[in-house]
């Protein structure tokens, strides 16, 4: 390699490094939630089940609550507060009656998950989120963060109400279902 080749290679490395830095500086805004910059965690759909829940009323959905390895370990070993790195994802689908399934039953009784509504994520990272008891929040629809800051602002405001009712819960409503 002569000097010109080396200089060109170095210049290219500089350009690529700058481009990568630009992309990584940009993407939190694109893919992260407002305020917290929480992203939809990779592979969350394969996480283990913490529990299920169903909400009536306006939401009218059925939900699965999943945890990453750190969250599941804390749940199973009854460790609170949740350690840094714990992530809990709440997946929800429209709660629908299934006429197909009902046709094999003597009376209508089958309710199933319809189309997805949204995924909500709570991330424990006490260094990143010191003002909200170590929790960061995000909501995602079709894989993209809900960009209305008011939606994300409501997360901690409501989860913090649990602190008075059940201080040991560490701002997490869902208990582990055995
Ligand atoms: C008005 C109160 C309220 C608001 C606002 C709210 N939550 Fe929750 N959240 C709950 C309750 C109650 C549960 C458990 C019962 C359920 O799922 O129906 C829950 C469950 C969860 C769970 C499952 C783990 C747990 O803590 O039980 C996650 C994750 C979650 N919420 C994240 C969020 C995020 C992210 C936001 C904001 C985008 C948010 N929540 C806004 C009340 C709230």
Would you mind describing this structure in some detail?
The radius of gyration is 21 Å and the shape is globular. With 178 residues, the chain is of the alpha+beta class. The chain has 2 domains: 1-31; 33-169, Chalcone isomerase, CATH 3.50.70. It has helices at residues 3-31, 69-76, 99-102, 149-159, 161-165; strands at 48-55, 61-67, 87-97, 111-124, 135-141, 144-145. Residues 53, 55, 63, 65, 88, 90, 120-122, 137-139, 151-152, 154-155, 158-159, 172-174 line the site of heme C (HEC).
Key phrases:
32% helix; alpha+beta; 5 helices; Chalcone isomerase; binds heme C; 178 residues
- Low-confidence stretches are 18-27
Give the end-to-end Cα distance, rounded to a whole number of Å: 64 Å
CATH top-level class of the largest domain = Alpha Beta
Structural domain count: 2
Topology:
Layout: H1 3-31, E1 48-55, E2 61-67, H2 69-76, E3 87-97, H3 99-102, E4 111-124, E5 135-141, E6 144-145, H4 149-159, H5 161-165
Antiparallel strand pairs: 1-2, 2-3, 3-4, 4-5, 5-6
In short:
With 178 residues, this protein is an alpha+beta fold. The chain has helices at residues 3-31, 69-76, 99-102, 149-159, 161-165, and strands at residues 48-55, 61-67, 87-97, 111-124, 135-141, 144-145. The chain is globular and about 75 Å long.
């Amino acid at each position: 390699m002569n000097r010109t080749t080396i200089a060109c290679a170095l210049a290219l490395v500089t350009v690529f490094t700058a481009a990568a830095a630009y992309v990584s500086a940009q993407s939190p805004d694109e893919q992260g939630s407002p305020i917290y910059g929480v992203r939809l965690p990779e592979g969350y759909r394969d996480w283990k089940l913490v529990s299920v829940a169903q909400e009536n009323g306006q939401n009218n959905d059925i939900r699965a609550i999943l945890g990453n390895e750190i969250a599941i370990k804390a749940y199973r070993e009854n460790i609170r507060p949740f350690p840094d790195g714990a992530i809990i994802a709440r997946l929800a689908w429209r709660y629908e009656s299934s006429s197909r399934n009902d046709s094999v039953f003597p009376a209508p009784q089958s309710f199933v998950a319809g189309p997805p509504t949204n995924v909500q994520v709570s991330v424990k990272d006490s260094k990143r989120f010191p003002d909200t008891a170590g929790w960061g929040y995000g909501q995602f629809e079709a894989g993209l963060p809900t960009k209305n800051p008011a939606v994300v602002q409501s997360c901690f405001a409501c989860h913090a109400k649990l602190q008075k009712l059940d201080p040991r819960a560490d701002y997490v409503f869902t208990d582990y279902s055995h």
